[in-house]
Specification:
It is built from 16 helices and twelve strands. The protein is an alpha/beta fold and about 500 residues long. The protein has a seven-stranded mixed sheet with strand order 1-7-6-5-4-2-3, with helices on both faces. The protein has a three-stranded antiparallel sheet with strand order 10-12-11, with helices on one face. Strands 8-9 form a two-stranded antiparallel sheet. It binds pyridoxal-5'-phosphate (PLP). Pyridoxal-5'-phosphate binds next to helix 5.
């Protein structure tokens, strides 16, 4: 623990009997409890007893212990940590929407259903798909939903021997995980040295036991897969469907459409491409789009419009059923619609080119010091394989920790698994050239430190409240309460 940076926790100020509020009496204090005795707690709740300023400082200090897009540059590759315009938050916090309940009669929720329906139409247009469900809660959840659609499609044709899904070795870990949860066996297809899928290897694995091929474009190395039309033809020839992991849609937004390339099913990470602050597990939304002919399998409920322009929800018999409580993570949907409407077509079409420009700018400014295993130009992100000079013993892990000392969030590290020292950088389109220059200068400083004073980098971070947690220990035995923390210290 870094004592100078340590901010005391609320329990350390607790004094028995101290109060941070005063409420008028409601006269109910002496009434008999209405709850049955078995449901009542037997011991007092362990709560800190503190004054109001202490409560405010506690939460404010806690919020500054966390790194966010609103506090600094966050080049976390694959995650598209773009700035979330504050107008989105204003829309999502609207009292009209916050007060809605899923069980309200649809005659009273026409506005909310219209938001859903409108966003689904926009996403269909952007993805080149026929229809979208907005119900899944995350990218991985969208993958699972999309694979369940594919399963339902094959089943509906009596084509039940297809028990495999093909996934490239560069894919995000959620791809094979989702396929396994959907009940499929995984076949891995190799990448070529330039990071793109080995089409010959893919061809050799395609047969009538393959249900789907999952692809990410641009892939996780930031390279555009140029052979998609050829791959789509092969996959369809074999009777399988082509799935698009749309977590990397950002550089293609408004420029190219997965539907036009031959993809049958896709998901979009609204919390990446369409803003929404995410990280630490949420919140998110992973809408799933399907080409014409697959709509009937989409999850329930579906939001439909009747000929009079009235909205209703439906659960058709062909639907694969419910994948979420109701119609998804609604406030994330609102942020996405707000983002689309405030940028407009022209604004949306600038996202991809600017994200691509920013990534190439950073890549070119650092590739004399950092090893670039797949030469550019890249799309929205790129991967270094650590420092060029491997003699210093400074690893990607050390570089990531040292960046924290300089106030930058670390890039994604050790992913993709194609390289030993992967350092995956995605600046996004919302960063100014001044911010990028400051990041570049810092990365150059770290490379110099690695050569001159490697121990400074190897022992980083020096300026964070918690310095060197044992990652394994922290995962196996997390200390999540103040009482356990006290025990640890004594
Ligand atoms: C983020 C990401 C996912 C998973 O999305 P979650 O919302 O985190 O479940 C899948 N594929 C790629 C390429 C991603 O970057």
């Amino acid at each position: 623990m870094n004592r100078e940076l340590y901010k005391p926790l609320i329990f350390e100020f607790s004094r028995s009997g101290r109060r941070g509020f005063s409420l008028p009496s409601n006269g109910l204090e002496d009434h008999k409890r209405e709850l049955p005795e078995v449901l009542c707690r037997q011991t007092e709740a362990l709560l800190p007893e503190v004054d109001e300023p202490t409560v405010v400082r506690h939460y404010t200090n806690q919020s500054t212990n966390n790194f966010g897009v609103d506090t600094g540059f966050y080049p976390l590759g694959s995650c598209t940590m773009k700035y979330n315009p504050k107008i989105n938050e204003e829309m999502a916090a609207s009292a009209v929407i916050a007060g809605l309940h899923p069980s309200q009669p649809v005659s009273t929720t026409q506005g909310a259903l219209r938001i859903y329906h409108t966003l689904a139409r926009y996403l269909s247009e952007i993805g080149g798909m026929s229809e979208f469900t907005l119900n899944p809660y995350a990218g991985a959840h969208g993958e699972l939903t999309g694979l369940m659609v594919i399963h339902a499609y094959h089943d509906s044709r009596g084509d039940t021997a297809r028990d495999k899904v093909i996934v490239p070795d560069s894919a995000h870990g959620t791809n094979p995980a989702s396929a396994a949860v959907a009940g499929y066996k995984i076949l891995e297809v190799k990448s070529l040295p330039d990071g793109t899928v080995d089409v010959a290897d893919l061809r050799s694995k395609l047969d009538d036991t393959v249900a789907a091929v999952m692809m990410t474009n641009p892939n996780t190395v930031g390279m555009f897969e140029k052979n998609i039309p050829e791959i789509a033809a092969m996959v369809h020839e074999a009777g399988a469907l082509l799935y698009y992991d749309g977590a990397n849609l950002n550089p293609m937004l408004g420029v190219a459409r997965p539907g036009d390339m031959g993809f049958d099913v896709m998901h979009i990470n609204l919390h990446k491409t369409f803003s929404t602050p995410h990280g630490g597990g949420g919140p998110g939304a992973g809408p799933v789009g399907v080409r014409s002919g697959l709509e009937e399998f989409l999850p329930s409920p579906r939001v439909m419009m009747d000929p009079d322009g009235r909205f209703y929800v439906d659960s058709p018999g062909t639907s694969l059923g419910f994948v979420s409580g109701w119609i998804g993570n609604f406030t994330v949907l609102i942020r996405a619609l707000s983002y689309i409407l405030s940028l407009g077509t022209d604004g949306l079409m600038k996202v991809g080119p600017l994200a691509t420009l920013n990534a190439n700018y950073v890549m070119n400014a650092l590739s004399d010091l950092y090893l670039l295993p797949v030469p550019g130009p890249c799309k929205h992100e790129f991967v270094f394989d650590g420092l060029r000079d491997k003699s210093t013993g400074v690893t990607t892990f050390n570089i990531a920790k040292r960046l924290l000392d300089y106030g930058f969030h670390a890039p994604t590290i050790y992913f993709p698994l194609l390289f030993h020292e992967s350092l995956m950088i995605e600046p996004t389109e919302t960063e100014s050239v001044e911010t990028l220059d400051r990041f570049i200068a810092t990365m150059r400083d770290i490379a110099r430190e690695a050569a001159e004073t490697p121990e400074v980098v190897r022992n980083a971070p020096h300026n964070t409240p918690v310095r060197h947690p044992d990652d394994t220990e922290a995962a196996l035995h997390p200390v999540v309460t103040f009482m356990d923390l006290k025990k640890e210290e004594s």
